[in-house]
Every structure is written in structure tokens, then in C-alpha cells.
Amino acid sequence: PKSGKIPRTLPINRGVPNPSTFISVHRHPEVQTNREKLPILAEEQIIMEAIHDHPVVVLAGETGSGKTTQVPQFLYEAGYTKSGKLIGVTEPRRVAAMSMSQRVGFEMNLPDLVSYQIRFEGNTSEQTRIKFMTDGVLLREMAKDFRLRKYSVIIIDEAHERSVFTDILIGNLSRIVPLRAKDTENGPLKLIVMSATLRVEDFTENSKLFKTVPPVIKVESRQFETTCHFQRTTPDDYVSAALKKACKIHRELPEGGILIFVTGQQEVNQLVRKLRDLYPSKNLEKDQLDDFNGLDEEDETIEKTLRKATLKRKKGQQSKVPTRSGPMAKGVLPRVDLNQYRAIPLDDTEADAMRDDQPEEEDVLEADPESLGVTTGGQPLWCLPLYSLLNSDKQARIFEPVPEGHRLCVVSTNIAETSLTIPGIKYVVDCGKVKTKFYDKLTGVTTYQVTWGSKAAANQRAGRAGRVAPGHCYRLFSSEVFKNDFPLHAQPEILKRPVDDLVLQMKAMGIMNVINFPFPTPPEMSQLKVAERRLLSLGALRFDKASKIHQITPLGKSMSAFPVAPCFAKMLALSEQQNLMPYTISLVSALTVQEVLLETPVGNHEDSFNQDEVRKIRKIWAGKGNHLLLGDPMILLKAIHAAEYEAGSRGNMLDFCNRYALRHKAMIEIRKLRRQLTNEVNLVLPHINLALDPKMSLPDDNESNLLRQIVLAGMVNQVGRRLEVPPNITDPKERAKLENAYQCGNLADPVFMHGRSIFFLKKKTVKPPEWIVYQEVFETDRMHIRGMTAIEPEWLPVFAKTLCNFLPPCQEPEPWYDIESGRVMCKINGTFGPQAWPLPTLTL
Ligand code: ADP
Ligand code: MG
């Protein structure tokens, strides 16, 4: 053991200067005995004195030392709730909030005093004295009562995880604490920042955050040596590798629990199922492993919540949105000679996409155990799953004694890394990977990707093996990979997130002065300013002359509810009233994914499609009239729904994609995004009760018009006007070239239509539109625009007000959102206001 400290069962005065404020708690003797083994008990005096003497204290201690379960009890006993105020504890994870509140209530023998509150549920009452909650819940409370008058202490737990919410909470609290110090009515507020023994300098050495550097208390804990073993090579399929390693440990190594780290619920269930098959236990009743068919963990939360919400709703209640199924693909499918194109052979990435699509068939672990080099039989395993959404009684089984003759084996996501401590673990098997949220900087859409974790996280995982005795950690990757590919620490989430989105979120929370906000790790200031400007032109913010601050508008508030980039959030917010939501969801999903339509040459398959063939296919997708005017996004819309139609009717999307030059992997991604967004929309706007209908009919003419307006509303920062070719240019070649040019935004030089844009391909028969919005400008040999949609200039005063200089005697256009009701107005007929409006001059 590194620390020779013997726990002092009864510190002298337990950090309370006046023991008369002390409240005694009558714990069960067994609980008391176990508590006394926790390293943090020996530090109670020091911790409580520090909290007494300082407004802010940082407490760092090895996972399992007792921070989360014991510190709230210390505070309660010391009388911090005597004034009727609460002890608040925030957790970045919902499960931690729930299970820890249960545990603390149990340990204190006062279950009614300890409650939890997470986004959709909670059990707080009059009697609550200690309240566990997610960081998001406390932020919302702050928006209502900035001084947090209900609380005498706030504990920010797991601060090392550096979730954006935790960071913003700490920033806010650094201001609330001094406010409360002077607040004679409500008394002081104590702040305790708790973290695992990872980097805490960002909190203590940031002069913007705390005026006086808070003391850092390190809790020494008995940690035994862990030997780390690396693989010689790094396997791709870490789930199979984990299975093999666990079997080998179980067969060959002395007793001691095994803890396996993988990245998601599905992998956990897959492994547990297989291990139970291989080493069956008679005691373990065949409990159900919930499976969610390839969904990410966060998706599952939403899915579960939705399911609950739907159950609550009356049965038989009709969806207000008419389902738009129908053989859309029939009349509109491109009529191309199907034999003309060769199928593109599957490459690795596409094979992967297939696996996503059909998890059952491709399930590696269903393979014969012998082919994996695994033997069955022998000592039974007590194999338990652990992930954040497992219900709490199943979760609690990791703390129960293991039945006679069994070896414990827990398969977990990174939840067992720092927030839960499992007793009796001697072997850790670590795949080294984590599932992380990625925010596409361009689109703001969140995706989940499996990547290498950090060195700090890997060492934290290894440490789980050394709690009772020296242990071993088997890393399913090579030491080279660890050395070269693992970052030292995980980056704080705030640096990975686009700031447009963050600024909007903060304003929605009531934090108006974003530029001066004391971030523990600040994003770039210039980025914050640019973000404010863009949000202003989107109509999410408005400049308040009195306060000289950019305030959030009702539109901005509704936008902030959608987890996508603000421009897309605006499109979704505007679609609410017109039953356009399913189309907008498809559009947003499609615009988010790169290269949906194959460009040539394609990888090694240059001969599969030539330029002409790609152009021809695109032209066929284009359509006529209003469909054509919706431009490149319409092609995406048609492609998605036609592919889904094929997938549904013939079950073969890949084949269809190959025939029509669509990227299959992109289609799979779009399908996932559509599901995710449909779920989110249902959470934000439960009354529209949207069903995900993969096959939809085409929008009619009126709907196409509305969709164009919606695209404009989201892309107000990307408006372009076709260049008039000056008469003094006479060279026909030069003239022809300039006919493809647009003047865009604040770019001085003309920007050219991309050769793949449908308006370019059709320009012989249809004149390219005068006014457009576009998705992006990119540079090759010259500047090009991609993703064009035609717009009507009379829409601009309505949707792109900030771009227009109104000429007198122009009246103010009809408001496009109603400030009183906070509802977004969008006219049904596709026309706005009196036709007689003078055309605005645009400041482009
Ligand atoms: P820390 O927050 O420092 O990581 P905790 O307070 O979470 O530590 O855990 C302290 C101890 O309490 C650990 O040994 C852990 O195994 C135990 N523990 C936590 N929750 C439970 C529970 N529900 N049942 C039994 N033991 C638990
Ligand atoms: Mg903890």
C-alpha cells in the first residue's frame, strides 16, 4: 500500500468548530464498518476544516476513495442543512445521480432525505436535504434563480470529465459564491469541486475563475501495483479480442474478478451473452439483456424516454402528422437502363456500413467458439453487464456478493472508469477505446464515434485492478499505439464543440455576456464574436440597445432546443407548423453528410462510372418546376427516399446505391441521423408526435416552395445573386464563363456554379436562377459554390432582414416570428405580404 494511514474512526471534532451544530446519524453497524475502511474517512477533519475556512475547495481522490458517497454525509452531519437549505451534488451522468442518491440514503438510513433529479424524473420532496442531480438540471435552476438560494453547498462531482455543462456551472459558480458571501439574507454558498486524481490546474490556476486560489485536498488511497500487459499487435475487432482474453484469464489465472471495458451497451450485451453461454452459471437466472439494435447509448436514452412518453399518452391517439407513405419511388425513379452500370465491389468502409445495417448476420461473436480459440466448460462465471442505462437494481448487483464457486466478471462501458467502483476486481481487460461525441464544426451535427481514449483514461482503467491486491491490466492494443496514438488527456468537450451552438445554448440559459464568461478552458474570443454575429443574422439574437447586449429571441430559444447547428435548428424550428418536419429532417440529415452522391473518379473504381454517366443520373433525379428550383437539396431528398423505398421493398439498398451512384455508407449515416433527429423533435415538440417514416412521398409544388423558404431561412448567411455580364465583355468564351458566376456574401470575386450542380447541368434548357442560397463555397482551380437552391427575391425581406436596406416607402414586412407568443410564423401559400413590395436593395 502506498499510504500507511490508519483511518481515524472518530476525528477530534470532525471539522465542526461548534459541535452543537452536529447532527448524529444512526447507521447500520455493517455500513459503519465498511465506511471506516474508506480512505476518505481518515481525511474528514481536514476536508471539513478546509470547507469551513474557504468558500471553494477542490477535492481530488482516487476513484473508490469515497468522495461521492461520503462527502455529502460529512456535510449533513456538520449541520450544513440546519438552516433548511440543501446540499446539491451534480453528476455528468444520469445513472450516477440516481444510484448515488440511493446509496447515500441507504448508508445514512435516511432514504427520504436523499433524492435525485434528472431531466425527466426525480423524487425530491419537502424532506429532501441532499439532492443529487445532473449538471444540466442545476444549470436550468440557475437560469431561474441565479443565486441558488435553496442551497448551502454545491458539490460538482466528476469535474475531471470536463463536460460543457460542468465547465459552465463552475464558471457561473465562481461568480455566485462571492455574491452569496455578501448575502446576509441567504448566507454563504460553499463550492466543492471533486475529481479523480487527474489534472485540476484548469480550475485552480485560472485567474479569471477564482480570485483566490482554492485549496486542493488530495485524498490518499490504498492503491496496489497494477501490471500492464500490451498486445503485440492491435486487433481491429476488439470485442472478439476481449472475449478471448477474458476466457484465457478465467482458464489460466488465479481467482479474482475480471472487469472488461468496451464502448457501448450493445458490445456489453454481446460479450455478456457469449460469456454466459461459455461458462454458464446455474444461479444466474436467464435475465433479459435489453438490446436496441445498433443504437448508440445516447440514442437509447432518447428512445427509452420516448417510449415512456408514448405510453403515458392515451392509447389510440392519432398522430397529427399525416403519414406520407406511398410508392414515391415509383413515378419518380430515374428510368435508367439498369444493366448499364456495374456494381461497385464492397470496400472495407462499405462492409462496415453493412454491418451497421445487419448486426445479426455479421455478429462475429456468434461464430463457433473453437474458431476463436476459446474453450468452454470449467468454473462458472458470474457475468454481469454494466452501462449507464441498465436499470438500477441490475446495476446494484455488481456490489452484491458473488455466489460460491463463481468468478466475477463485469463487462462495462467507461462508466466503471471513474464513477462506479466494483469490489474485488483483480484483472482489467481494456479495449482502449471510447465512444465519443463528435460535433461536426461545419454542420454542428453530433455523431458518435469510437476512438482511442487518453493515456490518463487508460491508466484510470488499469487502476481499477489494484484496489484489493496487486492486479493486472490487459490492454488490447500495442505499446506503440499507446505511446503514439493516445493523447495525454482527453480534450475538454468545450474545445471540440462549435461555438455558434454553444453561444446559443448559453444565451438560452440566460448567460448573456458570453465574451466575458469565466470558462475554465476558454474557446477563442474571435470565434465567440463571429458566432454572435451569425446568430444575429439568423434572428436567434437581437441587439438590445439599453443593455448593449445581444439578447436571445423567442426564435433563438426554440432553436436552442435542437441538437444541430443553428442554421439547421432554424430550419427545424420553422417546419413545425407546416407538417414539413419529416422533409426538413431528411434535408438536414442529408446536408450534414459528406458526399451523398458519388463523384467520379471513385477510389479505385474509376471505370465504374464515368463523368457523363454521373451527370446523366443527376439530371434524371432533378425533376421539373418547383422541384427543380429546390435544386441540389431536392436531389438528395429524392435519392434518400428512393433508396429507402428500395431497401424496404426489396431489402437491398446497396445494390440500388451502386446502380444510381449513391454512396451507400452515406445513406446508412443519413438513416441514423433521421432517426436521431425524429426522436429529438419528438422530445422538443411532443404534440406533433412524429413517426419516422423511411419512405415518404415527394413534396408537392406548394411544399417544395415552402421548403425553399425554409432552406433560405437557415442559410441567410449564404445568399448569392447571378452576375450580370457587363456589356463591355464581348469575347463569347469569356461571356459564357461569366454566365455561370454568382456574387456571394461578402466575397469580392465572382464564384462559379459547380459543374455537378443541377442548375449547371440543366442550364441548356432552364436558365440558372437569379437569386440563390448555397451550402458552401469551396476552392479548386477557382471559387465554386455547392448545394444551390433557387429563392425568390421577395422572400428576402422576410427571411433575411439583416441583409436588406429597405427603400422608403417600404413598410416593415410581416414579422416572421411573433414575439408575444414566441411562435414562428410561416405563411402557407408560399407568398408573403403584398406583392407590391418594392424590391429591397441587398447589401451583399
Ligand atoms: P468515489 O466517489 O471516490 O469514486 P464512491 O463514494 O463512489 O467513491 O465509492 C466508495 C465506495 O462505496 C466504493 O468502495 C464503492 O464500491 C462503494 N459503493 C458505492 N455504491 C455502492 C452501492 N450501491 N452498494 C455497495 N457499495 C457501494
Ligand atoms: Mg465518485
From TrEMBL:
The lineage of its organism: Eukaryota, Metazoa, Ecdysozoa, Arthropoda, Crustacea. One of its GO terms (molecular function) is RNA binding. This is RNA helicase. It is an enzyme of class 3 (hydrolase). Belongs to the DEAD box helicase family. DEAH subfamily. Residues 48-216 form the Helicase ATP-binding domain. The keyword Nucleotide-binding applies. Its EC number is 3.6.4.13. It comes from Tigriopus californicus. Residues 358-369 have a biased composition (Acidic residues). Residues 242-510 form the Helicase C-terminal domain. Signal peptide: none annotated. It catalyses: ATP + H2O = ADP + phosphate + H(+). Keywords: ATP-binding, Helicase, Hydrolase, Nucleotide-binding. One of its GO terms (cellular component) is nucleolus. The chain holds residues 243 to 1086 of 1190 of the full protein. One of its GO terms (biological process) is maturation of SSU-rRNA from tricistronic rRNA transcript (SSU-rRNA, 5.8S rRNA, LSU-rRNA). Residues 309-329, 350-373 are annotated as: Disordered.
